[in-house]
């Protein structure tokens, strides 16, 4: 089997406001928007009666997929990086400090940008849905 990355998917509660954050604050161009439903989809995702709205964004070498499900799943604990199974989206940016400075005032950051012992400049932020996004120098 020859595999290659196609997309990274994030399930969100409000597609429109989350899409706005990724498109406007993080400069990811929208590639497509579409809806999927029907018995085959519900069976594939193992959610009775499921349908979903999708937005695909150009993340360079990989597509970023935002998906809003109906029905909405239940909330669990807020995502943290040290929880087994935790996920985050890593985005290369030209300048982490400048990228963080350009975020909306209400964007939550975990800390100011930091330079790790490997020399990489990073910052973690949360999108409007609480998903973790790592910004790192390209």
From TrEMBL:
Domain named VOC is located at 4-138
- Keyword Lyase set for record: yes
Alphabetically sorted, this entry's keywords are: Lyase, Metal-binding
Native species: Haloferax volcanii (strain ATCC 29605 / DSM 3757 / JCM 8879 / NBRC 14742 / NCIMB 2012 / VKM B-1768 / DS2) (Halobacterium volcanii)
Kindly provide the name given to this protein in its UniProt entry: Lactoylglutathione lyase
Q: Which InterPro entries match?
A: Glyas_Bleomycin-R_OHBP_Dase, Glyas_Fos-R_dOase_dom, MMCE/EMCE_epimerase, VOC_core
GO MF annotations in UniProt: lyase activity; metal ion binding; methylmalonyl-CoA epimerase activity
One BP term from GO: L-methylmalonyl-CoA metabolic process
Judging by the UniProt lineage, the source's domain of life is: Archaea
**PROSITE patterns membership:** VOC (PS51819)
Q: Which Gene3D superfamilies match?
A: 2,3-Dihydroxybiphenyl 1,2-Dioxygenase, domain 1
